[in-house]
Design brief:
Residues 30-119 form the HemY N-terminal domain. It is found in: Membrane. Keywords: Membrane, Transmembrane, Transmembrane helix. The chain crosses the membrane at residues 46-66. This protein is an all-alpha fold. Among the domains are: 200-301; 317-381, Serine Threonine Protein Phosphatase 5, Tetratricopeptide repeat, CATH 1.25.40. It has 20 helices and two strands. Strand 1 (32-36) and strand 2 (39-43) form a beta hairpin. The protein is rod-shaped.
Length: 388
């Protein structure tokens, strides 16, 4: 009961004040005149007072609503969400551009990410890359792929890199075969080709190199030569297998010197001596290819025929291989003087093998002091230099 007394008193006081004001308003309403810049507003005092108080209450209410609803905060929140969306999109674009070798566009996308305030995608991708050699890589790879499927190719690219670094060439090639999109990464393509060489897939690599786009002619030829050498090496002694390799080459590619050398070695291995000699003559008649003349020593044909052919190709300044080959062929023909002359030229050019053969020849010809002296000179030429 006592708690109601203040409330009752407040009501009584309010009614008394309200009654007094009502009497005053009826008895004398008063006049309020407001003028501004040629405008004039005339009303009763009490109406003007109510208008002023109402305006103040309205302003207070508007300020309260602004603070309560905080439209600026809503705008900032909307902008932040928009920027985060842009940063997420551009992070993915930057990674994709980097994977395809377009570094300029990747840098532009990263600048957009920075202007948008960054993205949690980028540190997650960097963290996955840094954990490439960690023991918990499989768990990291699975978690990243599930959390961000859009960047799964990036994770697969790192998985391929992990296979390469751990020398798991078969797994590396299998992953790239299952994921064609990952094969588009430029530096992975080169590693794929290298893995094919290491696993003896030379014939398959020839097709890959010929079908490849965006590759310089010199680079294509370099890879083609390596592929052909591996392909022929894998079929040495297997008659008829070399035809498959030659069938995958163009006419111009068949005339590349290194390709002819690989073919000649294959032909020798299967006993196709005449065909090997024919191809070798074509090779040696090309400019600056006499360095391969030592292949003649592996051919099971008449040595005089070899000598006659080399005599026709005698250069103005014979090289190491030419001098050594001529010397050995003359030894087989028992033309000692000519053999000694050619081997001496080879030794003077710094060919150790020519020097050893010359020393043996001198020993056979009972020129023992000269042979012993030559052996000493050969031994001295092989001694490592002393620093100090």
């Amino acid at each position: 009961m006592r708690k109601l007394i203040p409330f009752v008193l407040l009501i009584i006081v309010t009614l008394l004040i309200g009654g007094a004001l009502a009497q005053m308003m009826v008895k004398d309403s008063g006049v309020m005149l407001i003028t501004w810049n040629g405008w004039m507003l005339e009303t009763t005092f009490w109406a003007g007072l109510g208008l002023i108080l109402g305006s103040i209450l309205f302003i207070v209410l508007v300020v309260w609503l602004i603070r309560r609803l905080a439209p600026g905060r809503l705008v900032r929140s909307f902008k932040n969400r928009r920027y985060q969306k842009i940063a997420k999109k551009e992070t993915s674009a930057a990674i994709q551009h980097w994977m395809t070798g377009n570094e300029d566009r990747a840098i532009k996308s990263l600048h957009k990410v920075a202007r948008a305030g960054g993205s949690d995608r980028l540190p997650q991708a960097v963290s996955l890359a840094l954990g490439l050699t960690h023991a918990d890589w499989p768990e990291r790879f699975s978690a990243f792929s599930e959390a961000d499927p859009e960047l799964k190719n990036f994770a697969l690219m790192l998985q391929a890199e992990r296979h390469w670094q751990t020398n798991q060439h078969e797994a590396f090639l299998a992953l790239l075969a299952d994921q064609p999109a990952v094969c588009k990464v430029p530096w992975l393509r080169e590693r794929q080709w290298q893995a094919m060489l290491l696993t003896g897939q030379g014939l398959q690599l020839i097709d890959r190199v010929n079908e490849a786009i965006n590759i310089q002619p010199e680079e294509r030829e370099r890879w083609l030569i390596q592929a052909v050498e591996v392909a022929f090496k894998s079929v040495l002694g297997k008659e008829g297998e070399g035809t498959k390799i030659l069938r995958s080459l163009s006419r111009a590619q068949k005339h590349i010197p290194e390709v002819i050398v690989a073919e000649v070695r294959y032909l020798i291995s299967v006993g196709a001596t005449e065909s090997a000699f024919k191809r070798l003559k074509q090779l040696l008649q090309l400019p600056d290819q006499l360095e391969h003349c030592d292949l003649l020593l592996s051919l099971d044909i008449d040595d005089k025929q070899k000598l006659d052919f080399l005599h026709k190709l005698k250069p103005e300044q014979p090289g190491l291989a030419y001098c050594r080959t001529m010397g050995l062929l003359n030894i087989k023909q028992k033309i000692w003087g000519s053999a000694q002359s050619w081997l001496e030229q080879g030794w003077q050019l710094g060919d150790r093998e020519s020097g050893l053969k010359l020393a043996e020849l001198l020993q056979q010809r009972n020129m023992l002091p000269e042979s012993a002296e030559l052996y000493k000179n050969i031994a001295k030429s092989q001694q490592p230099a002393v620093i100090g």
